[in-house]
Amino acid sequence: MKKRLTNKVIIGICATLTLGLSNYAAAWSQNGHRIVAKIAENHLTDTTKNVIAPLLKGEKLAQVSTWPDEMRSNPSEFWQKKSSKWHYVNISKASDFKPASYNISATDGKITDAYALILKATAILKSPSTSLDDKSFYLKFLVHVVGDIHQPMHVGHSEDRGGNRIKVKFFGEETNLHTLWDKLLVKNQNLSFTEFTNFLDTNNKPTLANYLDSQPKDWILESFYIAEKLYDVGNADYKYNYVYEQTPVMKTRLTQGGIRLAGLLNTIFDKSAKPLVNALGNKK
Q1: Nearest CA among 184, 113, 178, 120 for reference residue 151
Q2: What is the DSSP track for 215-255?
Q3: Which residues form a coiled coil (predicted)?
């Protein structure tokens, strides 16, 4: 006898399939991306805020920070098949990553991964000839992807899809290494993104200078070296010890992502912003 699938079963199957297709493209939880964006917003110069206001079209950085993930529900070919590679960089060994080999400009160069996206977005946002809509599109993607590459498993190995195929447990619940870092470590703090931002944000000048003394290629390699250690999963049954060991890493990556995003946006939009000198606005 053939069994008929109930609506609940069908919905569950569809949800599972969708999750499998989109998991690798999602980094940090919604709160994680909003934390990065809110920290960045706190440190934008007044000039940068004024320039990007028309590009944000009435929204805040925290609002647009999750947009590229939300748009993966769009059925178009771009969102279903092309955009996912913009969120990560596959590296099996450090020598695999060759920043000098990327040839990207505002009008040329294919976006093959997250690093290429950052280069393309930066070029387009600096260009006086690109349209308002293009600038808006790439600004939102840039806000998101700077967050992405500070999540270590977005610079993981292609064969395990950035840890998606590595099964682990978190307080007894089945999950995978990628989801643990995308979502569960942040969620475990039980904080809203505004509360978490207030706890993480800083005006400590040596810390800010240290975080800003870097480029996107450095941020990617930082995540790679962190991820390499995370791949040593041990018994893959994580509880309080893992939270104790890795929460400081997660917090640092969120803070670095926010400060560096602010520095990048300020140097794109504010000619007076100089890295390590006055690349950041005053925190409100």
Answers
A1: 178
A2: -HHHHHHHHHHHHHHHT--TTSEESHHHHHHHHHHHHHHHH
A3: none
The pLDDT tens digits of the residues spanning 99-139 come to 999 999 999 999 999 999 999 999 999 999 999 999 999 99
CB distance 60 to 34 below 8 Å: no
CATH of domain 57-97+144-269: 1.10.575.10
- Which tokens is 187 given? 């969620």
Handedness of CA 102, 256, 38, 186 (dihedral sign): positive
Task: List the one residue out of 71, 72, 129 whose CA is nearest residue 105.
Answer: 129
Q: Starting at the edge strand that comes first in sequence, how are the strands of the sheet with 167-170 ordered?
A: 173-176, 167-170, 237-238
Query: What token pair was written down for 138?
Result: 């790439």
23-53 pLDDT per residue, tens: 455 567 899 999 999 999 999 999 999 999 9
DSSP 29-73: -HHHHHHHHHHHHHT--HHHHHHHHHHHTT--HHHHTTHHHHGGG
Instruction: Specify burial of residue 203 (Cβ count, 10 A radius: 0-12, 13-18, 19+).
Output: exposed
Beta-bridged to residue 168, according to DSSP, are 175
Domain boundaries, the chain: 57-97+144-269
Residues 6+ away with beta carbon under 8 Å from 94: 221, 224, 225
Tokens for 100, please give them: 């000098």
Q: Which amino acid is at 203?
A: N
